[in-house]
Amino acid sequence: MVMDFEFRKQVMDYHQGSDVIKYCYQCSRCTDNCPVSYVTDDLYQYEYNPRANILAALLGHKESIFSADPIAIWGCTVCDTCDEVCPQNIELTEIFTFLKNQSIENGEGPDFIYQQARAIFDYGKAIPSQSGVERRRESMGLPEIMKPDVDEFQSMLKNMGIDGKLKEEGD
Amino acid sequence: MTEFKMFEGCTIANRIPFIEASTRLVFEKLGIETSEAPFTCCPDPTGFKSFDDDGWLAIGARNLCLAEEESKDIISLCNGCTNTLRGVQHQLEHDSIKKNHVNEELSKIGKEYNGSIDVRHFVDVLKKDIGLDKIKSAISNSLDGLKVACHPGCHYMRPHEWMETDDDPMRPTTLKELAAVTGATVVDYEEEELCCGSAVSNAYEKVGLQNLKRKLDSVKKAGADVIIVNCPACFQQFDTQQRMLKREFDEDYDIPVLYLTELYAIAMGADPKDIGLRYHRQRIRDIPQLGV
Ligand code: SF4
Ligand code: SF4
């Protein structure tokens, strides 16, 4: 297994001022309490396994992380249970955020994530307003939703290079 | 009471606005005042944060700036929005490098994040600012005999460093206390703190359904008439996915879902028609306490 030291450093630095991830002693409390690990056993040949992800990230095994089926990263339902039960106070989900962001950079995220990011970029809303729902709002006496300043919003995202990570429909 | 900026969130505003109708009705009865602001998506802590963490921080901070400009706290109707906005606050407060970076981006669009307002989940406002006694005195139609299973959802209380609720992040009780003031009976069930699985369902539907089955098996075993939630993502998961469970596992649950504010609206005497109970996918029928 190749150790990628640059990747390892990125993992360690992900949390400013905190290197607690190196104190993971593989107790598996995260995986034992993870709802996705609980059910992926029966459905797939492999498990979704947060403990294994932390170990691989800590050891800089970049290739093994990103060459596996994307469910190895994206199976997480972000319930934040592992963060709470870890005896070493490791914020696992922050490390997983880093791994997912990397997977997006590689263009390998699930369709849903790209679709949502596209909607947010285009409309400023994950779920854009639709005329049918607007009519229903009106019929229930609800106020109109104030329109966000999409131009200003988009210029901020463009300054940050986020538009470059979006995919077009069908990409 | 001071006025809050209403953060209804994309899902409630643009998909299930009937939740907002019951919320506004209950807020009016309890004297919670709100006004609008041109917020964008929070953005989604289980979606956009995974797409681009820096972008998540900047978008969240920009929303907070809009409330700061009016010196008003935010009241959120959604676990996810509360989680993002509080999470962004927490990270910017504890990480000056991140804060400088975000403010650099914000300055290019003429904004600055200060951290001067608070972000409140409506459940927290109900419990702390209004209080159980005042809510109780607004109940005119006791839901005596109705058995409810409470599901506060993950992001209402986790990670606890961000959310700072009074609840134990693994054993929350606030939603149960709030539901019980209606006269309903709160039933305990084994998988109370299990995630609804909404986020994983978006990418891996079967995994989500397997998780949901585990959750609803437990609710069913406890004999609940309805599930009570305080998050639109959980609401949708329970309300729209039960028929998928039927297809996948040939299992009938038929357990309706109510937002806490829907439960309250009915207990405060609202007509189910006025709060759009008929728009639920999971039909609410033959429950006399709910007037249907
Ligand atoms: S619970 Fe914490 S210490 Fe234990 S294996 Fe998981 S990350 Fe490591
Ligand atoms: S946050 Fe993800 S990895 Fe952690 S317990 Fe929940 S699903 Fe599992």
Please give a structural write-up.
The complex is a heterodimer of chains A (171) and B (292). By secondary structure, chain A is mostly helical. Chain A folds into two domains: 5-105, Alpha-helical ferredoxin (Fumarate Reductase Iron-sulfur Protein, Chain B, domain 2), CATH 1.10.1060.10; 111-165, no CATH class. Chain A has eleven helices and no strands. In chain A, helix 4 (50-58) crosses helix 8 (92-105). Chain A is globular, with a radius of gyration of 20 Å. The two termini of chain A are 32 Å apart. The relative contact order of chain A is 0.12. The model of chain A has no long low-confidence stretch (mean pLDDT 92). Chain B has 292 residues and is an alpha/beta fold. Chain B has two domains: 4-122, Glutathione S-transferase Yfyf (Class Pi), Chain A, domain 2 (Up-down Bundle); 142-290, Rossmann fold. In chain B, 49% of the residues lie in helices and 9% in strands. Chain B has 14 helices and eight strands. A four-stranded parallel sheet of chain B has the order 2-1-3-4. In chain B, helix 13 links the parallel strand 7 (226-229) and strand 8 (257-259). The mean pLDDT of chain B is 96. The complex binds iron/sulfur cluster (SF4) (2 copies). One iron/sulfur cluster binds next to helix 3, helix 7 and helix 8 of chain A.
Approximate shape of chain A:
globular
Question: Which ligands appear in the coordinates?
Answer: iron/sulfur cluster
Identify the strand order in the major beta sheet of chain B. Answer: 2-1-3-4
- Give, in order, the helices and strands of chain B: EHHEHHEHHEHHEHHEHHEHEH
Number of helices of chain A: 11
Give the tally of β-strands of chain B.
Answer: 8
CATH class of the largest domain in chain B: Alpha Beta
Radius of gyration of chain B: 19 Å
Oligomer: heterodimer
Biggest sheet descriptor of chain B: 4 strands, parallel
- Count of discrete domains of chain B: 2
Biggest interface, CB < 8 A: A-B, 67 and 67 residues
Parts with pLDDT < 50 across at least 5 consecutive residues of chain B = none
Average pLDDT taken over every residue of chain B: 96
Helix content of chain B: 40-55%
Q: Per CATH, which architecture of the largest domain in chain A?
A: Orthogonal Bundle
Q: Tell me the strand percentage band of chain A.
A: under 5%
Q: Based on Cα principal axes, name the global outline of chain B.
A: globular
CATH architecture of the largest domain in chain B: 3-Layer(aba) Sandwich
Overall tally of domains of chain A: 2
